[in-house]
Structures are given as C-alpha cells and as structure tokens.
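User: My collaborator sent over this chain with a note saying "see what the structure looks like." That's all I know about it. Can you take a look?
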Amino acid sequence: MGKGGRKDVSSTSVKSNNGKGEVWKSQYNPLDPKAPKLPSKGEIKAKIPKECFERSALHSFYFVFRDSVMAVGLVCATSILLSTDLPSSLLSLDSVKWLLGWNFYAFWMGTILTGHWVLAHECGHGAFSSSQTLNDIVGFVLHQALLVPYFAWQYSHAKHHRRTNHLTDGESHVPSTGEENGLGPNNERLSFYAVLHEAVGDGAFAVFQLWSHLVIGWPLYLMGLASTGRLANDGTPLEGDIIDHFRPSSKMFPSKVKGKIFLSTVTCIGTLGLIMKLSFEFGFLPVTLWYWGPYMWVNFWLVLYTWLQHSDPSVPQYGAEEWTWVRGALSTIDRPYGIFDFFHHKIGSTHVAHHLFHEMPFYKADVATAALKEGLGPLYNYDPTPWYKAAWRIAKRCHYVEDTNGIQYYKSLEDVPISRNKKND
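Assistant: Without extra context I'll predict from the sequence alone. Here is the result:
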C-alpha cells in the first residue's frame, strides 16, 4: 500500500495542524484493520426509496423556466439601473456605484447561470428526463451557451464518475505527485510548485491555489493543460500527450464519439464568433459586462464544487490495484452551501447521492441523501465546514500525493522542510 495512509480516523473532527481549532475528518480509513466492509452498489441502492429514481421532464423544465425567469429579471433590472458607459470621472461616487453595480450583476448572474449549468449537467447524466434525445438537446443548448463543449464534457465527466478518486485512470482533479510538484526523492525542493511555495510562503501559495483553480482552472482543464487523467481512452499512458476537450482526435475520446466532439467544438467556435460580432457591433466593454463577468463566476462555482467534493486530507485516493467503484464513489464529500443550494439545485450538498446514482434527478436527492446518511453511517462523508473555509483549508493542505500506487492521502507543501539555502537566509 502507499505511504500516504493515516491510521486513526476514529472521530469526525480533529485538532487542526496549527492548534487553532478543530477540522472535519472522514471516519472511514481503508488502512485501518477495523475499517467496516463496504457494501455493494446494489446494497446501497436498496437503502434508497424507489421513487427517488423517477424522472419527470415537466418537473425538470420547471427549473429551467425558474432559472431563466431569474436571469431575465436580473438583466432587466440591471439595464434600468446601470449604464455600460464608463463614468465620466473614475474618482467619483458614480464610479464607485457603477463598479459595485456591475460586480453585483456579474456575481449574481453567474450564480443564476450556474443553475442552468447544473441542469445541463443533469441532462448529460440522463437525469433530466427519460428521453436521452431530449436530454441531449436541452443540455447542448444550455451548455454551449456557456461555452461548454457539451458532448466532450459529457464523455469526460462520465469517466470522472466511473473512476472517482482513481489516481491513474481518474478524470478531473486527479492529484499530482510530489515529484510532479517539484519534490525530490528526499523531499528536496527542486522545481515548480515546491520552489514557488517556498518563495512566496504558505498564505500566498494558498491564494495562488485558489486563483489557479477558480479563475483559470476551467479553461485550462478544457484545453487539457490541468487536472486531467493519466491514461488515454484505450488505457495506455499519455506520456506527455495533451487530452483536450476540443479535438476529435484527442486521446481522451474513442472514435465512436468523434462526430459529437466535432459538433460541440464547432458550436463553441460559433458561439465565440457571435460574441465577437456583438463586441464589434456594440463594444467590447458592454459584452464584457453583460457576458464575460457572469461567465467567470459560473466557472468559479463549477470548479469550486468539483474541487471540494473530492478533496480533503482525510479522504483517500486509490491506485489501480486498490481502487473499486464503491470505494471511489464513497470518497465524495457533501458540504453545506447555504442560499446557493437554492440556485445550484443542491449539487454540492447532495453530491454523495449523485455520485452513487447519477441518473437520479436532483430534486429527489434530498430524500436519497437522508436515506444514505442513515444507511451508510460512518461511510457517509459530510463536512459541516462553511464552503469558503473549506476552500481555504484545501488550498493550504491538499497539494500532492506521494505516489500513484496503493492508498494515498493528500499532503501539503507546508509540511515539507524549507531548503538549506532558505534556512541560511
């Protein structure tokens, strides 16, 4: 087994590494000889009421309508209250109102549109309705409007569900190793993030982690430059090849879906072309204010959810010989998101149920989650830490794993000794 294991997960909270309070800790430790036997997928499904798996296109369309009404309402209110023209004086009260107003719009429109994003995600899983044709039509329209290559992401996200927390064949937020982060065999800081962390310090590096994930992480992932898996679609090592979401020839995809990948990519190009046409016609500033600001917040939310749902120092990651589907799915973490649960259809607070049974519609996930919490006991992961505090902790504590074999746990560069030269300084 890997060297990253921990031996005591007997409680749900432990003292933090700096002694300033308690942090949540998963109760399941596969390295513990007394760890409970995991149930089969069938046994888990039997704990959930059958009606939780009933899909309704009409019910799902209600949420498309609801979210769309909120989006249109916000656009109308903003168009009445704000101008896209820059204030005549940048050092004025009007300028402050203009800046705050457009940032308010960007945040809340991005928050609302993340609801559309989640509904398209439901379509990709087949949870929107019983007709996959209808699912794909609705999902394609909603996702492509947000510059998401629907069919490409549908395929890669399905693999993420098939191989959750798999260190070699996983997809999305696959942990990098210490060596890939620039650590030597004896934890020497040789290059890359290891050196950067030492140069800027713990807090600044955590801020960089948040920025790199939540601001530029999504486009980097789509381009195959971050957070992808280590294997091609045929199971062979990538060996430096980039697996992006846009080329039909990308090694991420089998030949049978190349036509769909091409359609997604062409539509993304067409959407970008339309945005550029509007920019030249109405101005780049208005298009940035109306579209690109909310777009950045949509990216923020979707990466935040996927990052926090599968990352914690106490949740295991598995090498090929240790991984099983149930182990991976039960490595998912539910978290509280307060008011944002309403806008985002509880994607973050019922994600354990979603990872176990992605075909389940989100509006039945509350009931399923309650059943899972009771039926799974300590195998159910729920971290009550507020999401913003959890994001900061993960940015500080989840940097790398030691190896891609065995059972591994996230480690932090904060625990790696500083270099000799730094000590001398």
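A starting point for your reply to your collaborator: The CA atoms of residues 224 and 243 lie 5 Å apart.
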